[in-house]
Amino acid sequence: MLNLSGASVRINMRYYSSLLFMFILLLSSCIQDEPLNQECDIVKAWVEGEQFAENFYQPTQMRQENISTIEKEIVFTVRSLISLPTKIPVRFELTPGATIEPANGSEQDFTNGPVTYTVTSEDGAWKRQYTVAFKEANLPIRKFSFENYETIETESNENFYHEFYELNQDGTRLNMWASGNPGAVLIKYQSTAEQQPTYSLANGYQGRGVCLNTQDAGTLGRMFGKPIAAGNLFMGRFILENVLFDPLKATEFGRPVDRVPVRVTGYYKYRPGKTFTDKDMNEIPGRVDEADIYAVFYRNKDDQGKDIYLYGDDVLSSPYIVKKAVVSSLPPTDEWSRFEMFFEGDDADEQMLHNQGYNMTLVFSSSKNGASFEGAIGSELCIDEVEVSYEDNENE
Q1: pLDDT tens for residues 201-227?
Q2: b/e code 45-84 from CB counts within 10 Å (16+ = b)
Q3: pLDDT tens by residue, 101-123
Q4: Nearest Cα to 39, choosing from 126, 118, 99, 100?
Q5: What is the pTM assigned to this prediction?
Q6: Cβ neighbours of residue 350 closer than 8 Å, sequence gap 6 or more
Q7: Measured at the alpha carbon of residue 60, what is the angle toward residues 54 and 66, in degrees to the nearest 5?
């Protein structure tokens, strides 16, 4: 349940508790069914009708699939708000037995801003609020100063964590950054936002920055063969439901762009942890942890028009990658130091660019092999003032 009246946002954490104890269910020989479902989530959202298709770049943008339980905003990207109809019926798939208000499929006016929907669980005891918005495609943001963040408070285990966002040209919020924080708080109790793997840094290179640090994942992490949690920040979505049993699918990389990226620059500080360990927490003598910064530009549709996203298992190897940029070396330093990387690869198709047929992701991690649960506890990467140059402004 959302409470937007305070400085932080409280979110219902029943799904966190459920994930935390899922391993108990796997060991149980009998699971007793509850008479009424307590879930109140939107699973899918879509717009039907050929009369609305011309407002979108591609038909697949008329559907939002696999909506994670930690998401509270559903955004449909359209060509223009000026030509957007004032009556659009958005339809939803809900968790079993749940109801939604305004009514599922009812016509709503989205031209004046987001519409708030309230989902009520089958047993009537739980509610969640979502905002549904139709927004124009924005020009790619060129500079990221990481000044904008929100403090999320969990209810079940009294944890806090930071969620980063950008601002559109009209000052509205743009959710384009994700981190592993929603998964990391599964193993904690009564922890502050600054105790999570990714948090807002008060003293950045200019203003605020971001701090990423590799942490011990505790008893639960070891039980599932995931003994460390590397701090990370990336363009894309974090899918909480996959974090325990398919962690490489928990990170969904990419946001649409209509320009070809050329170069990424920024500032960093890095201090590796003392002891490098493998996925079984065995020390590897002589091995020093490394930070990781890279970017990928890739096709977001296959030849049949199906949506393509990259995940932790193919973000650097997918056949849909067109260009990628990798920082070759990030030497340890306690001073803010500049990094630079260039995109290399194939040319982009102009028509596909026009129709937003490409995604880009930018990824930062405090441990280069953190996705494989290898690294050094205590490794810390700080980043700030990151800038992306595109082909249309490379000479500006």
Answers
A1: 999 999 999 999 999 988 878 887 889
A2: bebeeeebeebbbbeebbebeebbbbbbebbbbbbeeeeb
A3: 999 999 999 998 899 999 999 99
A4: 126
A5: 0.80
A6: none
A7: 140
